[in-house]
Amino acid sequence: MNKDAISVVLPSYDLADIIGKTLSDTYDYLSKQTFFLRYEVIVVDDGSRDKTAQFLKDAAARYPSLKVVTHSENEGYGAALLSGLHIAQYSSILFMDADGQFQISSLVDMQPFLEDDDIITGYRSHRRDSVYRILLGKMYTWFACRLFDLSLKDINCGFKLFKKDRFNFDEFDCHAGVFYTDFFIQAREKGCRIKEVPVAHFPRVQGKQTGASLEVIIEALRDLYRLASRQKKAVKNIT
């Protein structure tokens, strides 16, 4: 795989009103930057109920390097990322939320670290969310880091650049909101070098956020329990 090429994976759910701007901004930036000679954009429509699927069908005709993956029903954030990864052809991967809260131009601050690091993960230094979501995010990061002995500022920031060949994505079993916790646990186990970089964060103006709903929180707690059980078994097997 070409180290000077990148696959951009955009998970999408009910984003018909914003996905067009996200794609336009993404392709405009990629066409002008000079550090990745080749690129592709992968949008995973995770069972959207609005007009996202039709918009992406039309967009694929305009953007030759656009790949669209469609889930027949909503499978969760992590599952959408995994679907994109399985068809990504390039060695550098960028995860970016497609709801307009990140700008792909933040990539310029991350790319230089690819030479020495395996994962360059963003953290929202000035998070533009409600107080409730900010507190919930800080609590989750604090809890997950202590539960699994990780050291991160913003574990679920949806802007991450990494080397694909450092992972075996068939080993992932958390397909919803705890995906990034699983991601960093496996990164540590594989000895990955991790660099944290501040990224700009913008208010979400379209689409509905589901990450703070009671249903998603309960599912996250269940996934954390499964991860903790898996880690406990792994330690027992070693000893």
Question: How do the strands and helices of this protein lay out in sequence?
Answer:
Layout: E1 5-12, H1 19-32, E2 38-46, H2 52-62, E3 66-71, H3 77-87, E4 92-96, H4 107-110, E5 119-124, H5 131-148, E6 159-163, H6 179-189, E7 194-199, H7 214-238
Parallel strand pairs: 1-2, 1-4, 2-3, 5-7
Antiparallel strand pairs: 4-6, 5-6
Helicity level, as a percent range?
Answer: 25-40%
Structural class: alpha/beta
Total number of strands? 7
Using only C-alpha atoms, the radius of gyration works out to 17 Å
Give the tally of structural domains. Answer: 1
Any key phrases for this structure?
single chain, 239 residues, alpha/beta, Spore Coat Polysaccharide Biosynthesis Protein SpsA, Chain A, 7-stranded mixed sheet, 7 helices, 7 strands, 19% strand, globular
3D architecture notes:
There is one protein chain. The protein is of the alpha/beta class. It has a single domain (5-238), classed as Spore Coat Polysaccharide Biosynthesis Protein SpsA, Chain A (Alpha-Beta Complex). It is built from seven helices and seven strands, in the order βαβαβαβαβαβαβα. It has helices spanning 19-32, 52-62, 77-87, 107-110, 131-148, 179-189, 214-238; strands at 5-12, 38-46, 66-71, 92-96, 119-124, 159-163, 194-199. It has a seven-stranded mixed sheet with strand order 3-2-1-4-6-5-7, with helices on both faces. Strand 2 (38-46), helix 2 (52-62) and strand 3 (66-71) form a beta-alpha-beta unit. It starts with a strand and ends with a helix. The relative contact order is 0.16. The model has no long low-confidence stretch (mean pLDDT 89).
